[in-house]
Amino acid sequence: MLDFAIFAVTFVIILVGAVLYLYPSSRRASGIPGFNPTDEKDGNLQDIVNRGSLHEFLVSLHQEFGSVASFWFGGRPVVSLGSVHQLQQHINPNHSTDSFETMLKSLLGYQSGIGGGANESVIRKKVYENAINTMLKNNFSLVLKLVDELVGKWRSFPEDQHTPLCAHLLGLALKAVTQLALGERFRDDTEVISFRKNHDAIWSEIGKGYLDGSLEKSSSRKERYEKALSEMESMLVSVEKERKAQRRQTAFVDSLLQSSLTERQMLKCAVLAVCIWALHFLSTSEEVQDKLYQELEDVLGSDPISLDKIAQLTYCQQVLNETVRTAKLTPVAARLQEVEGKVDQHVIPKETLVIYALGVVLQDSETWRTPYRFDPDRFKEESARKSFCLLGFSGNQTCPELRFAYTVATVLLSTLVRQLKLHQLKGQVMEVRSELVSTPKDETWITVSRRS
Fold this sequence. Notes:
With 452 residues, the protein is of the alpha+beta class. It has helices spanning 2-22, 45-51, 54-65, 84-91, 99-108, 117-155, 165-182, 189-209, 214-217, 219-246, 252-258, 271-283, 286-300, 314-327, 358-361, 382-390, 400-417, and strands at residues 68-73, 76-81, 163-164, 333-336, 341-343, 346-348, 353-356, 420-424, 432-434, 438-440, 445-450. 55% of the residues lie in helices and 10% in strands. Residues 215-249 form a coiled coil. Keywords: Coiled coil, Heme, Iron, Membrane, Metal-binding, Transmembrane, Transmembrane helix.
């Protein structure tokens, strides 16, 4: 009887321990404080959906649990870092992987078809940098032409006319990206419209459909997504054949075709977001516009902007940096923990997905003074520049695509601000849609007036 009692007690203890371990609400990722999974299959997926975006979910996560916190994406534990100090500890030993691609592959299930690990990632980044530098050098006059067309259109508007910022800059961004990246074929507006339709369908599902699990639950949406993806891939294959036959070396794709990279991968481009937010924030501050105008006059005089003059526009660089910071342009990135690591007192096991909550860090009051205010002068400070470099938005860690976006945005600002003043509409409230890139939730309107 005693033996049976001992056996029974032991069995109950083991059973309770197993339930506590296996039942999703009882576990924490890697022992790091955070949200328990609310569903065994989906983890905290529904919590993310309820918050509206992964960024908003991470804001609440770090508010409750501090700068190192955990949650569950499906059955996978995820660690999120929400301050510069913790990011610095983690980035140094894990600097070789691409943060955007890591998140898509590990968190969203997207596969780019590339292998080879960190070394190939480094090689690919160098190829991209060289390709973008060559593309800008060969096509800078085209960027000037596209910007001049837009500014000329705005100059013709009456001063009280409301200008739809997002719509107009979407047109500029699509023309610039498609023509510079994929060649002369996209001088045809019908090709640009087709590209936009498929790009928007793919991007919206990558940015939201995978994150909230809704893509898999809607057969019609999944069908539209797969159709758009198939059409986009067919278009890219067609462009590849055309460019190989022409043997020209002017577009971004030409440099990729010359390299050893074989995967079909779309450019991720922040041109649209950088331009929209930059002009929106400028419209809220006449003082910033005037300071930028003065720098442009001092550096350029009456000459148009040139590629070699961009580096001299330090205040313009500050404006763009502050645009990215205030808008939280890229609210989330990620790295895969390649070997077991440690952040503060927390051990992060090998192959744990580590989220960089950049949107949280970019407005962390302990890192940035007056974090919610648009203030380009903050980047005069060495500490602000170092923090920004660490987050991957400037310096050697900047992704090549963001450098491209900065170049197009600089051309736009240098042309626009010397001819026009931007004015915000009274009472307009800008709401943000935080997905993989932060954009305005609705159309943003401004008015313009000529500089005397």
